[in-house]
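worker-03 picked up job from queue 'complexes'. Input manifest follows; two sequence lines, order preserved.
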Amino acid sequence: MIETERLAKSYRKNNILIHVLTDITFEVSRGEFIAIMGPSGSGKSTLLHLLGFLDRPDAGTYRFEGKDLSSADDNALAAVRNSRIGFVFQQFHLLDRISALDNVMLPLLYLEADDPEGEARAARALQAVGLADRGSHFPAELSGGEQQRVAIARALINDPVLILADEPTGNLDDKSGADVLERLGRFRDSGRTIVLVTHDRKVAERADRILVLDSGRIT
Amino acid sequence: MTKACARLLKGLRYSFRILAAHRLRTALSISGLILGVATVIVMAAVGAGAEHRVVEQVRAMGTNLLIVTAAPAPLVAGRARQVASMTTLRPADADAIVEEAVRAVAAAAAVIRPVVAHWQGRNVPTTILGTSRAGLGIRNLHPRSGRLFDEVEERERRRVVLLGPSLAHALFGSDDPVGREIRLGGVPMDVIGVLEPRGTDVSGGDLDHVVVIPLETAMRRVLNVSYVHALYVQARSSADLPALEVEVRGILDRRHARRAGTPEPYLIQNQVVLLRTERGATRALSRLIVATATLALLVGGIGVLATMLLSVRERVREIGLRRAVGARERDIHLQFLLESGLLATMGGAAGVTVGVVVAGAAALLGPWDLVLSFSAALLGLVVSAGVGLLAGVVPAVRAGKLQPIEALKGG
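worker-03 finished. Artifact:
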């Protein structure tokens, strides 16, 4: 599913080159649930962005489903993000002017092909995260845990093969956090690959495997 | 196709919600457009009203009419003469034109002079129009009450008078003047009829503040002159007017020999030319309106641009999220262009509403002639939408340029 080889990424900040990631080489198989751990600033989020084609590496290769997409254009990458990958963010990133159901349906807006079943699928996705009766609520009317579950439903709407979660429990209390993790774990059971970034060991221990990042390297 | 439409509609719905959520800002940002479009609607209504009035007036006179007027008298030794205009034209000129000019259907002589009308201690300055029965026909004069003068009265120079409705009201109030005797410059005259109202002339003068009497009566019994001030010549159609003008000029020149080098003692006014001139004047007004409106819409566009730039800046995270779930750069472009277009179209629609209400109220409450123009309303809407799309270009490009990762971090 995921193969990286000597991935590197650096930023220039105030004219100083900062090497965020160096020599990142690892593999994740289909259906695996892995956690990337490390202290803040270790480059975990940057790595997740590279894996999700939100950013491009400076060096190294990244094969996603066996394909190297480094020469693909932005539109092709957008299509991959749309239909193959689901994102879950720490800040949920729900649009606050539209209902939970409409939030879940947002990725359908950018789908290549027509999808008459879209709304039904969105409703099912909401049901799968236990929010069948909350579809018409606006994000502000939902608790943090519920908002994150809406975000998970959104990540699932286009039936992705890979779910990337960046500190999904970072803004939640323990109980909601545990609930969100439990639901994420369930999707692994249906054959999806999950990559989760966290600095919390208790969260990471839910995964099949833990990758530890320190100062931009896998240790 | 349907998919694209559905997408557009969904995008519009979202844009509308965003705009509705920032009501005050939305209202402020489109206030320029509202004002601009409302101004266009009102000014276009005023312009169309003015043109309409001009056309109506000229048409009331007849667009197939030549008016020969006595030229202003030239100065002698630097001083004006006692008579203000040349005294060349005679009633017989009208008869000659009817007989000789092939294209003339009718012709009539007329005298026009200021006069004071008296009735029971009321003195009202007005204008006398002395003309023949043919003249009544050419000028489209019809009685509202009473009757017009007949052939006998005309031939025998009877002292009969027709009152314009304004003058009738000034002298008699709501009483019926028919059958009463008024005095015109000391001469007693029997009122035999009141004319139908005719409104104002091109320059705003009241066409209804007038007394109309038989030509010979006016010349011999009231004004004591042997010349006339004007000849009305009617053609079959307005297309004949240029040729008729040449004919009339030939006849008059033959009848009134003058020394070479002296100016023509009369002016020939062609109604079609007059109409064209007046229309030209209203066109100039229209051009001014367009210039003003362009400026207003430009300012309106800047308002929309500012709001959209602000909106992009505020919604960086939203843009990032959209990119993350699969929006391409051009999806983002489209979204912000739609939003900008929607914003401006709302402004345009509000402007049309305000303009129509203001123009309608002005037409109902005031003395103005306003003609609402559908095309002006449509133009206002279309131009607003265009301005909106144009103003959306820069914000849209800016939004599209945001990298998803930067955008998700919040800029």
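worker-03 released lock.
Residues 48 and 164 of chain A are 7 Å apart (CA to CA).
Chain A has one domain: 2-218.
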